[in-house]
Design goal:
Layout (H helix, E strand, L loop, with lengths): L14 H22 L3 H73 L5 E13 L7 E4 L12 E3 L4 E8 L4 E5 L6 E6 L5 E6 L6 E7 L9 E4 L11 E9 L6 E8 L8 E9 L11 H42 L5 H5 L1 H31 L1
Antiparallel strand pairs: 1-2, 1-12, 2-5, 3-4, 3-12, 4-5, 6-7, 6-9, 7-8, 8-11, 9-10, 10-11
Protein name: Cell shape-determining protein MreC
Family: Belongs to the MreC family.
InterPro entries: Cell/Rod_1, Cell/Rod_MreC_2, MreC, MreC_beta-barrel_core
């Protein structure tokens, strides 16, 4: 009777053979999927079939995370609501004061018969992305010349100045931020009225108020607003706040470090202003007195050079006229024709003795040499 193991305990290929087979199958599937994307459909079907199971397994986690987010969100919303109420109250007070100041300003202007110089329009815009150059502080907004954006327009938000439009495209515009090293804004200190120019820094994290004398009254905490003297920025826009003032004895100007009031890098929604300063054009520059005197001297010298030939002729004419009467007095019996030709003859007679005198010594010298020979 032959012995054979029951079907349940039958052994197939060896374990090593099965390992090698499955390793080869796995490698073949990996290579085919990486090269030819053969398992994309299978992967999609498996993912769609297992998605309900995944969602069911994640329900407890989502429940606890949602409860925690709800608690945190409620607390955050309460805090933000309190801040917004406080901010709204402050803005309402400032609006009331601004309305009162506008009415007073209009009354004074009418009293003094002054015209309104400032007309400002605004266009809302949104930042799309930063520029590719990491060494510049520039962003691109989703408004361009088709929407009325113009080159050089100031860009602000609810807190203050953000930057200035430097390049305009049909559907987009490039804005140079306030902290860029090449950006300059004329400003004025609110407390003292001192005017200067504020620049960005190479690092882009602060502002530098330049051309401030050491004797100027500048303190930490002073607010800076646009002066409006350049005709680009409207006057009174908040720009920065003084952080530190360094005064050194070996320099004529103090170093004033400022911080922007508006979140330059954190702003998302902006306003592009169209500021028109209705000021009469600047009068033409007067000529320099020294330059005018030099030009007058040059013109006089040219006229004198042109008049010199005539003066020579005029001077030679009186001498000829004076020589003619002298010749006429020396020979009164000569005919009129001879008297008219007498000046030339006189010149020839004057030259003749000189020639004879020069010829006589030469002849005497020649005779003496012949005698010696």
């Amino acid at each position: 009777m032959e012995y054979s193991p029951p079907p349940l305990f039958k052994q197939g290929p060896s374990a090593l053979a099965r390992l090698i087979f499955f390793v080869l199958v796995a490698l073949a599937l990996l290579i085919s999927d990486a090269r030819f994307r053969t398992l994309e459909i299978v992967r999609g079907v498996l993912g769609a079939g297992l998605y309900p199971l995944q969602r069911a397994a994640l329900v407890p986690r989502d429940f606890f995370m949602g409860a925690a987010d709800l608690a945190v969100t409620s607390a955050t919303l309460r805090g933000e609501n309190e801040k917004l109420r406080t901010r709204n109250l402050q803005l309402s007070q400032q609006a009331n004061q601004a309305a009162q100041l506008d009415a007073e300003n209009a009354h004074l202007r009418n009293l003094l018969q002054l015209s309104q110089r400032m007309t400002t329009q605004s266009i809302p815009a949104e930042i799309q992305y930063d520029t590719r150059d990491p060494f510049t502080q520039k962003v691109v907004i989703g408004r361009g010349s088709q929407q009325g954006i113009r080159d050089g327009s100031p860009v602000v938000n609810e807190d203050g100045v953000i930057g200035q439009v430097t390049r305009v495209f049909p559907m987009q515009s490039e804005v140079t931020l306030l902290t860029d090293k090449d950006q300059a804004v004329p400003v004025q200190i609110v407390r003292t009225g001192l005017r200067s120019v504020i620049y960005g820094t190479p690092k882009g994290d602060a502002l530098d108020l330049r051309f401030v004398p050491i004797s100027a009254d500048v303190l930490a905490g002073d607010e800076l607003v646009t002066s409006g003297l350049d005709g680009i920025y409207p006057p009174g826009l908040p720009v920065a706040k003084v952080v530190r003032v360094d005064k050194q004895a070996d320099t004529a100007f103090a170093r004033v470090i400022c911080q922007p009031v508006a979140p330059v890098r954190g702003a998302r929604d902006l306003l592009v202003l169209h500021y028109e300063n209705n000021v009469p054009p600047r009068p033409a520059d007067e000529p320099d007195p020294a330059a005018a005197a030099k030009e007058a001297k040059k013109k006089n010298a040219k006229t004198q050079d042109k008049g010199k030939p005539g003066e020579k002729d005029a001077k030679s004419a009186p001498t000829a006229a004076a020589s003619a009467p002298a010749a006429a007095a020396a020979k009164p019996a000569a005919p009129a024709a001879a008297s008219s030709a007498r000046p030339a003859g006189k010149v020839s007679t004057e030259k003749k003795p000189a020639a004879e005198k020069s010829a006589k010594p030469q002849a005497a010298q020649g005779a003496n040499q012949g005698a010696k020979q």
